[in-house]
Design brief:
This protein is mainly beta. It has helices at 2-13, 31-35; strands at 63-71, 75-86, 89-105, 123-141, 148-162, 172-184, 189-196, 207-210, 215-217, 221-230, 235-244, 252-260, 265-277, 283-295, 303-308, 318-320. It is globular, with a radius of gyration of 21 Å. The chain is 5% helix and 51% strand. The longest helix is centred in the first third of the chain and has 12 residues, at 2-13. The chain is built from two helices and 16 strands.
Length: 321
């Protein structure tokens, strides 16, 4: 028990300093995780290394996962994951891209001396945010009387850039690290602990540094995940408790459930809490309800769909497939 509390305190100590709201990790995950309310900190699927790296522990097969979707008419999202075993260690590479094309810039001096709009001073640029994850997982069998202990590590590199050479204020680079472990207690219960963005620094290692010289700390958090499985994993319940090292965010919950009807169809639902600024400048907690399903038409092929009715970006209902 003392060893378990030591691991919890180790992650909590990494969250001592105050940070500002810079979170390029994003709220978008795989369609399965989206349908489950963005929960899954205690899951172990290699394609979800953006949520955790535990699916890489004990990895035996090579795999690839990809998804792409568009919001509005100009914002495109691309996710890709490649994973493979390397002896006792499972390795994974993940890439996430958010691209906004043809952004119309209207500078303060867009009107000429005659008071008319100067079209030459209006510019269209392409804006991109990307995150590269280099992840690894390792399994310790029969640790502390559990079935196994899975260890996960992710090094994350972030880039913000645009196509206009003179807009240095919209260019930034940064990196950080996620650490975590998953305790496979028995066939019924698994629990996990993840420290996100645990490195605290003023340079590129530990913060997002803009071309102007401003360094912004990334949002750090501790996530406690729980997973209960019944009937040989045909019914799964997930609950994540998110603690943020921020005054703006209270403890937030993510919950999900999956029921496998047969070998072909699985039904999913979830709840996700998030915060938004109210008119008075205060943070208010909201809850989004999501749903979806998964299809296995052929062995080794998984097709997923999720319906998500909005998020902390204030978006309308979205469909992921």
């Amino acid at each position: 028990m003392k060893k378990r509390w030591f691991l919890f305190l180790l992650f909590s100590a990494a969250l001592a300093a105050r940070t500002t709201l810079v979170d390029l990790d994003g709220v978008f995950a795989s369609p399965r995780a989206t349908a489950l309310g963005m929960s899954g900190a205690a899951e172990a699927r290699a394609e979800d290394i953006f949520l955790n790296q535990f699916g890489l522990a004990g990895l035996q097969n090579f795999g690839f996962y990809g998804s792409s979707y568009r919001l509005y008419d100009d914002t495109n999202y691309l996710n890709g994951v490649l994973y493979f075993p390397a002896g006792p260690v499972g390795l994974g590479v993940g890439y996430r891209l958010r691209a906004v094309n043809d952004v119309l810039l209207t500078p303060p001096d867009m009107f000429g001396t005659d008071g008319r709009l100067d079209l030459d001073r209006i510019e269209r640029v392409n804006y991109q945010q990307s995150a590269l994850h280099l992840s690894a997982g390792y399994r310790l069998e029969h640790f502390l009387g559990w079935q196994a202990l899975d260890l996960g590590l992710a090094y994350k590199s972030y880039t913000v850039q645009n196509s206009a050479a003179d807009l240095d204020s919209l260019t930034a680079q940064g990196s950080n690290v996620d650490l975590g472990f998953l305790a496979r207690v028995n066939d019924l219960w698994r629990w996990s602990l993840i420290g996100r963005n645990v490195v605290n620094g003023d340079g590129v290692q530990g913060s997002l540094v803009w071309r102007s010289g401003t360094a912004e700390q990334m949002v750090r958090s501790v996530v406690l995940g729980n997973r209960l499985a019944f009937n040989e994993n045909r019914l799964i319940f997930l609950l994540d408790v998110n603690y943020y090292a921020e005054d703006y965010a209270p403890v937030l919950l993510n919950a999900g459930a999956e029921g496998r009807i047969n070998n072909f169809l699985a039904l999913r639902g979830g709840l996700r809490q998030y915060t938004l600024l109210t008119g008075g400048g205060e943070q208010r907690v909201f809850t989004a309800v999501s749903a979806g399903f998964g299809l296995n038409p052929w062995r080794g092929i998984q097709l997923d769909y999720a319906y998500y009715p909005g998020d902390d970006l204030g978006l309308e209902a979205l469909h992921y497939a």
